Amino acid sequence: MVYVDNRPRLPWKLREFGRIWGASRDRRVSIPNIITLIRILLVPVIVWAIASNEMAVAFAIFVIAGVSDAVDGFLAKRFNMASELGALLDPLADKALLVSIYVSLGIWGAIPRWLVILVVSRDIMIVGAVIVSWVFGKPVPMKPLMVSKLNTVAQVGFAALVLGTLGFSIEPAPYDVILMGLVTVLTLLSVSLYLVEWTRHMSTIEPGR
């Protein structure tokens, strides 16, 4: 016996819409990525707070951003929510926040401008090296060195100390000098090691390419 499906068929356009809608529902928005995007949106807010001399507010936003960074990392690993987009957005959010704070505090006069130039120049050099490697078809693996992780920790600690000092009249000495020295040494060391690894990586390009 042959069974004939007499159920009404949807028009082609409606069936296609249903297929696309079903596929889009499968691509759920990642919660860690939403948290990271919110952290990026906090950048202009914290810049406004520093420019308006609302250092306590800037410190609070900085703490919130730090907590959100820990939360999205935990969710991504614990619940298998890691994604390629998140791997790109997370370091971008961290760098955007730190660079914005250092530049704002440098303009405000809270930290030496030579330190701001050093921190920003390091990131510009690394981004430039990555772009050059892409142009030559030899993308550099984006694996941060241990010294770079330590450098980020030192930068975060120094920024938090400066904001806390300005916002709550905390006595920073001698920790401000210690952290500033660590940021300086680790920044120079990290960019030097990165450029050595980048040069070694790019030296494998075949002549004539």
Characteristics of this structure?
209 residues, 7 helices, disordered N terminus, globular, 0% strand
Describe the secondary structure blueprint for this structure.
Layout (H helix, E strand, L loop, with lengths): L11 H15 L4 H21 L3 H24 L5 H25 L4 H23 L10 H23 L6 H28 L7
Helix pairs in contact: 2-3, 2-4, 3-6, 4-5, 5-7, 6-7
Low-pLDDT stretches are 1-5, 10-27
Total of helices: 7
Give the number of DSSP strands: 0
Radius of gyration, Cα only, in angstroms? 24 Å
> What is the share of helical residues?
over 70%
Biggest sheet, open or closed, and with what strands and sense? none
**Average of per-residue pLDDT values:** 83
Order of helices and strands, N to C? HHHHHHH
Using the alpha-carbon principal axes, give the shape.
globular
Oligomeric nature of the chains: single chain
The first-to-last residue Cα distance is 67 Å
What class would the helix/strand composition place it in?
mainly alpha
Strand content: under 5%
Characterize the structure shown.
The N terminus is likely disordered. 76% of the residues lie in helices and 0% in strands. With 209 residues, the chain is mostly helical.
Nutshell version of this structure?
By secondary structure, the protein is mainly alpha-helical.
